[in-house]
Amino acid sequence: MNGPHDLGGQMGFGPVAPEIDEPVFHADWERRALGVTLATGALGAWTIDESRHARESLHPATYYSASYYEIWIRALETLLERHGFVSADELEAGHRIWPGVTPKRVLHPGDVAGVLARGGPCNREVEAAPKFAAGDRVRTINEHPTGHTRLPRYARGKLGVIEAVREGFVFPDTNAHGKGEAPQHVYTVSFDGRELWGQGGDPALTVSIDAWESYLERA
Amino acid sequence: MTDKHHHDHHDHHHDNELDPFAARVKALETILTEKGLIDPAAIDAIVETYEHKVGPRNGARVVAKAWTDPEFAEWLARDATAAIASLGYTGRQGEHMQAVFNTPDTHNLIVCTLCSCYPWTVLGVPPVWYKAPPYRSQAVINPRGVLAEFGLKLPEETRVRVWDSTAELRYMVVPMRPVETDDLSEDELAKLITRDSMIGTGLPLRPGSLGPGALWPPQDVAGAAT
Fold it and tell me: Hey, which of A13, A211, B139, B148 would disulfide with A215, CB 3.0 to 4.6 Å?
């Protein structure tokens, strides 16, 4: 979707303003927000793609005025409601009212180290041979799906070169909507700065994205 | 906290306990705990991991080894996930790693324009600016302007190579080894390698320039992350 999250090339947000000696967390609630987000992810009810889509589906005014942990929590409330774990009246009350859905699993303290060290690999076998090879010239598709996609707007309809052929990976555009992993080959595609940004673009700039095969056409 | 809410003179800006969003997160954690969906001790363990165990000191060990061991550097370039795992750094948001090497001609910069993808296993959780709109919007169109904000001025002819993490690959930059470091051990070299130098928004420190603000997080100065 052409949501508020798709930020590449937008203007007007002001300086980056890096913070000297930035602490890992700026408030205790950020610690809890990180922990709650990861622990509920371990319930196994939704995928990382569905959670990303929940975040980018926030209203733009909310998205742009929220810190990133706030974005996480707002999206998490949506996911917990959608999957029947928590209801709106419970969020209002701040306490359990209903039993709710039983999860596949709950993350126990003793399992945290192992779960974090294993992570969640999303590479998958793809039977078909990769359609493109390193060095091939490709054009990204110019599509504007209303659902989740990982092809940013600034890189749609652009000429690029396949820089690397990666493994097969879960396809976010289907997986985010419960339509299956449908894995595809992923490619690192590089673009000249002026192809992306016109004649005013930096002549000594190369930008790459990682693109699923169906985002690409031979050029 | 409930009692405090009945006071009418509290100031939301000076007490995180009274911040409305802090209350919202607290309520959510309470509901989930009451429902048996989370265990607060598991939350504590997650926080402990990313506040004190997993951070940029991991990445600094990787870079220092690449600077001193050509075979490791070659492995890191070819199969970063395995090379990094050999040092014990594996897991969440580091499942599929790619190391990109700065050269005299090319400076690498990593970004996630669509969300906040970041190589947690080697750099920890991302700083606020990395996840915020100014960096995410400008890194791909005006990277030199972004770098200037970090005090980094590159020669015009130096190619800027930006990696937008739009899929599940996670990138780390391997900066060039500073001059006059031939006598330094791998441990000493690791102390020169900042978080920002592995994102591409900075360069490694020069020997003798170690000082306040040089390392992150401060408590990991002694390499506690290993």
Answer: A211
